[in-house]
């Protein structure tokens, strides 16, 4: 066993055992009750009128709240209500072509919420699916344990336990544009605009401190949001953003995972593009064999856990009539994929302090893409970028491995501690070797046990 592995084994096991033990517990499930007995909460989005844009919505400003409803979330099987409040908002945004549209965000308020100022974390789930039923707003209400990563639910619990208000946007929009970065950016930024208007939770939005967190597909959304923020939402003041397992170039990732146990993610990524680009949908219909369109139609019904765990190895290009070169040269494909490539010439440079972390052994993302993107934005004047390159670990494990230190970094931004000036790349045997990260693991474990036993979700016992 390598020296690095020996050093990281104990703390990594501590995190994974904590996550796994709580995930396996029958107490740690999500149930939902409707705040209003006449509400349609819990119906699939395509059947729930709450998701339908109301008459006149197009004239509303981007980020305007169009509808609002309370919901009750239960994170344990024993507690009737663990959160001080949970509500959903339908808000005005734009589609991938810049035309008026609307989508939903879930706003969670913990007990003992930290105030003066309010800490607001926009947490972008790694939805990683082209199926609309996998949107966070529905998966959190549908008792759909197979649609949402349990690790991410535990991180949501950790954030609430720290006293943060959470915004959980359906950033892929009503057509579920998975891998469409431009669409994800506006979904996140307009979700922030809307969330800051929920006065019952954020009474003084001008003084609130805002941060972003995302891993994998959630990092794609967060990364695009911080890129587009200077031009799309310059009024938003974002204290920092965590980008873990970051997705920089969709084409590179699709090629990287093709013909692997993650081949289904290739189909999912292309199908997410097909959902929102009509020209691409028409082209794929002619370029794919019948079994190719059937493959895309099938993945359009699946959520992340089912897609990720399938494990079938196949070459996506075996399902396509045209050559790989011809496929990637088609105008509709070029247009669609360009919406998933960060840091292109002429695009804005993120002005938000960034913590970027990934494993150098990540089997899904392309670590060199992350290196090149960091170098690119730093050369172009990004004010603060801390890039942590973890020595080992696959994609899913790194989400857990990097989380404690990442949340400590978020804490520092919320405390207005000085940020790094300029750019630095750090090599880490394990982020868990940091004593503060180990303390956060202890905090996480204590809070999860308390909440699983029925305690309220929020800061407890001085944590």
Largest sheet: 11 strands, mixed
CATH architecture of the largest domain: 3-Layer(aba) Sandwich
CATH topology of the largest domain: Rossmann fold
Name the helix and strand elements from N-terminus to C-terminus, one letter apiece: HEEEEEHHEHEHEHHHHHHHEHEHEH
Helical run tally:
15
Spatial separation of the terminal alpha carbons: 36 Å
Spatial shape:
globular
- CATH class descriptor name of the largest domain: Alpha Beta
Total number of domains? 2
Helix content: 25-40%
Main sheet strand line-up: 1-2-3-4-6-5-7-8-9-10-11
Q: At the fourth CATH level, what is the homologous superfamily of the largest domain? A: Alpha/Beta hydrolase fold, catalytic domain
The radius of gyration over CA amounts to: 21 Å
Which key terms come to mind for this protein?
single chain, 463 residues, alpha/beta, Rossmann fold, 434 Repressor (Amino-terminal Domain), 11-stranded mixed sheet, 15 helices, 11 strands, 39% helix, disordered N terminus, lipid metabolism
Explain how this protein is built.
- The chain has 15 helices and eleven strands.
- With 463 residues, it is of the alpha/beta class.
- It has helices at 3-24, 136-139, 150-161, 181-195, 217-232, 250-257, 263-276, 278-287, 290-299, 304-309, 324-329, 331-338, 367-379, 395-414, 435-452; strands at residues 31-34, 65-74, 85-94, 100-109, 119-124, 165-169, 209-215, 238-244, 354-359, 384-390, 422-428.
- Strand 9, helix 13 (367-379) and strand 10 form a beta-alpha-beta unit.
- Helices cover 39% and strands 17% of the residues.
- The chain folds into two domains: 3-249 and 341-452, Rossmann fold (3-Layer(aba) Sandwich); 250-338, Orthogonal Bundle (434 Repressor (Amino-terminal Domain)), CATH 1.10.260.
- The protein has an eleven-stranded mixed beta sheet with strand order 1-2-3-4-6-5-7-8-9-10-11, with helices on both faces.
- GO terms for molecular function: triacylglycerol lipase activity.
- Pfam families: LIP.
- This is triacylglycerol lipase.
- InterPro entries: AB_hydrolase_fold (IPR029058), Lipase_secreted (IPR005152).
């Amino acid at each position: 066993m390598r020296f690095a592995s020996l050093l990281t084994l104990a703390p990594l096991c501590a995190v994974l055992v904590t996550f796994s033990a709580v995930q396996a517990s029958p107490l740690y499930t999500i149930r939902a009750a409707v705040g209003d007995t006449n509400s349609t909460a819990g119906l699939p989005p395509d059947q729930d009128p709450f998701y339908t844009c109301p008459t006149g919505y197009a004239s509303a400003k981007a980020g305007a709240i169009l509808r609002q409803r309370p919901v009750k979330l239960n994170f344990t099987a024993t507690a009737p209500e663990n959160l001080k409040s949970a509500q959903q908002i339908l808000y005005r945004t734009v589609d991938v072509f810049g035309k008026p549209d609307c989508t939903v965000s879930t706003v969670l308020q913990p007990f003992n919420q930290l105030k003066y100022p309010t800490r607001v974390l926009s947490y972008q789930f790694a939805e990683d699916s082209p199926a609309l039923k996998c949107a966070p707003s529905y998966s959190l209400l549908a008792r759909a344990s197979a649609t949402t990563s349990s690790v991410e639910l535990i991180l949501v619990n950790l954030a609430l336990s720290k006293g943060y208000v959470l915004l959980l946007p359906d950033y892929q929009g009503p057509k579920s544009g998975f891998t469409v970065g431009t669409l994800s950016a506006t979904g996140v930024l307009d979700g922030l605009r809307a969330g800051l208007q929920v006065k019952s939770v954020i009474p003084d939005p001008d003084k609130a401190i805002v941060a972003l967190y995302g891993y994998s597909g959630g990092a794609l959304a967060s990364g695009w949001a911080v890129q587009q923020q200077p031009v799309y939402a310059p009024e938003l003041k974002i204290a920092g953003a965590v980008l873990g397992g970051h997705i920089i170039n969709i084409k590179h990732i699709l090629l990287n995972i093709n013909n692997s146990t993650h081949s289904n993610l290739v189909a999912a990524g292309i199908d997410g593009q097909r959902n929102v680009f009509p020209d691409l949908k028409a082209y794929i219909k002619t370029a794919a064999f019948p079994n190719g369109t059937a493959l895309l139609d099938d993945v359009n019904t699946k959520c992340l856990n089912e897609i990720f765990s399938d494990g079938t190895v196949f070459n996506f290009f075996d399902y396509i009539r045209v050559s790989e070169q011809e496929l990637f040269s088609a105008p509709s494909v070029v247009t669609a994929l360009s919406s998933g490539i960060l840091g292109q010439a002429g695009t804005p440079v993120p002005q938000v302090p960034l913590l970027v972390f990934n494993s150098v052994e990540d089997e899904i993302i392309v670590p060199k893409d992350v290196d090149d993107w960091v170098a690119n934005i730093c050369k172009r004047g990004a004010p603060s970028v801390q890039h942590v390159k973890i020595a080992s670990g696959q994609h899913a494990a790194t989400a857990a491995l990097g989380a404690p230190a990442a949340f400590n970094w978020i804490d520092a931004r919320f405390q207005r501690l000085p940020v790094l000036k300029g750019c630095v790349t750090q090599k880490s045997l394990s982020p868990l070797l940091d004593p503060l990260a180990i303390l956060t693991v202890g905090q996480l474990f204590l809070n999860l046990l308390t909440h699983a036993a029925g305690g309220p979700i929020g800061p407890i016992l001085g944590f």
